[in-house]
Amino acid sequence: MKDGHRREPLVTTAVPGSVYAAWERFVQGDDQVLGVRPEVAISWHRCREQYRVDPHLTEAPIAVAEIDHTPEYDGVFAELGFRAASLAHDVSVVGGVVTITDATGRILAEWGDPATLARAAEANLAPWFCWSESAAGTNGMGSALEAHGPALVRGAEHWCQAFHDWACAGIAVRDVVTREPIAVLNISCWRSQLPPLAGSWLANAAAKTQCLLRRRARNSGAELVAAYTQARAGSSAALAAMDTAGKVVIADETASVLMGVPAATPALDPTVRWNPGLPELIGAAQYACKQASRNPDWVGSTQIFTYLADEPTPIVIRPVFLSGHLIGTLVSFDASDGPPLPPHTDGPARPKSPLRRVVATRENRTMLLRPPEVSFAESDGNDVWLSTDQGRVRAASASLDSLGDELADVGFLRVHRRYVVNLSRIREVERKRGGELLLVMAGTTGGTDSMVPVSRRNAPAVRRALDI
User: Domain named HTH LytTR-type: which ranges (predicted)?
Assistant: First the structure.
């Protein structure tokens, strides 16, 4: 199943003493993590390099971030709460606790052994405290938010030394369309082993909760297709239907060319939708959804750059509702109606700290690469691959978008919806007929040069960056 969680055993072969020794070296700046599972080493890297979490933190901070979730997510929290409460007795018998967090890592509720709950409170393992990796380092809840699958953290695998007496296992429930986390279900034990069935308990609870999301995605997808069909019958403008995340559910032939997505036929699986790869369009759709959630009669217009067009194209965005809940928008191209959208709809950019290392994996090894060692990154399905001086390796980043954001401050540029390149590794720029550009990337050690295409949409940014 695409959205089912693999029931892998929550075990580790690392020797506890060797993990602690590796932890000691790593917090002091050594990059050697021998004897540590790759997923834990990657998490440590995030905690040290990206989040700068103090490894000597003694308690989790109070949660300050509040996530603006949709009403549908309230049903997810209720369903997951029911599943967690049903586990509470079995977990309590072995001296454990069960927690639920939201997508920020904020604990919403907990159940379990009273003595362990009292011990947990000393570390703020309690409601309204934040256990994301950026707040509390490597732990079951925070690492589950970062991983696509179960997260097990035991003893010295925790980034913060004060939590080394704990063992925890978490699993995230994710939106079946956007794949963004909604909540985490977690089991924690103090100075004892996790229950043998912990992995199965978590996987079953998460899978049943995601069935609810899949059913809702099917209903909202069908309603968006129906709204698209009705609107297309009364208009000749190019038209597409997009969900609240800015992904395309269905588009006619003209709109599909402008957005670079398949035409007309929606996917058989209602959770499979297409990313148009046009940041302005996605931002406009998301902005429209925020406005429509406050005012159902809202209609807006703006202009965006599309594929195969040298000039911006006017669009009109209208909201679509199902049983009073916003489920997406209809986007009409070459049309103008309603008030204009603000010129910048993405909101203020978060400050970024310079990235010192790029994390990658090869077989069972974790690789920490300096940015100059990376020639370019390529998206291939659900994976991101790096062309590096050490060969082709898999990036730890979950998406090309997130990797591109991380590398933007160290000389990397998004040149195509499938490629991010290191500007300093561009050897030549080849101009093709029709104004298309190809980048000749300097070859990796012992290898040959590679050719990377530049999309029309990104060509002006490439010319500006290279001053050509």
Answer: 358-468
State the total domains in the chain.
3
147-161, 162-176, 209-223, range with the lowest pLDDT: 209-223
Average pLDDT, the chain: 85
Same domain flag for 113 and 22: yes
- Looking at residue 432, its amino acid is K
Instruction: Based on the fold, state whether residues 119 and 151 are members of the same structural domain.
Output: yes
- pLDDT, tens digit, for every residue of 408-424? 878 899 999 899 999 98
> What kind and span of H or E run contains 253?
helix 253-259
Residues 6+ apart with CB under 8 A from 91: 97, 98, 111, 112, 113, 187, 195, 201
- Can you give the CATH number for the domain in which 380 is found? 2.40.50.1020
- Give the C-alpha separation, 99 to 377, whole Å: 37
Q: What does DSSP assign to residue 190?
A: E
Residue 28 Cα to chain centre, angstroms:
29
- Going from the C-alpha of 459 to that of each of 5, 89, 309, 377, 414, the distances in angstroms are 40, 59, 12, 17, 10
DSSP character string of 363-419: TTEEEEE-GGGEEEEEEETTEEEEEETTEEEEESSS-HHHHHHHHGGGTEEEEETTE
The C-alpha atoms of residue 429 and residue 437 are separated, in whole angstroms, by 7
Residues 450 and 384 both lie in one domain: yes
Q: What is the mean pLDDT of residues 379-397?
A: 87
Q: Are 157 and 142 in contact (CB under 8 A)?
A: no
> pLDDT at position 346, please?
44
Q: Summarize the confidence of residues 167-187 as an average pLDDT.
A: 90
Beta strand pairing call for 325-333 and 239-243: antiparallel
Both structure tokens of 216? 């809702």
Going 205 to 210 to 215 to 219, the CA torsion angle's sign is: positive
Does residue 119 sit in the same domain as residue 75?
yes
- The DSSP secondary structure of 291-326, one letter per residue, reads HHHH-TT--EEEEE--TT-SS-EEEEEEEEEETTEE
Residue 287 lies in a domain: yes
Please report which helix (H) or strand (E) contains residue 249, including its range: strand 248-251
Report how far apart, in Å, the C-alpha atoms of 349 and of each of 46, 441, 460 are. Answer: 20, 29, 22
CA 270 to chain centre: 20
Between 161 and 361, where is the model more confident?
161
pLDDT for res 162? 97
Amino acid 468: pLDDT: 77
Identify whether the C-beta of residue 425 lies closer than 8 Å to the C-beta of residue 376: yes
State the pTM of this model: 0.67
Determine the pLDDT at residue 145. Answer: 94
Same domain, 223 and 363: no
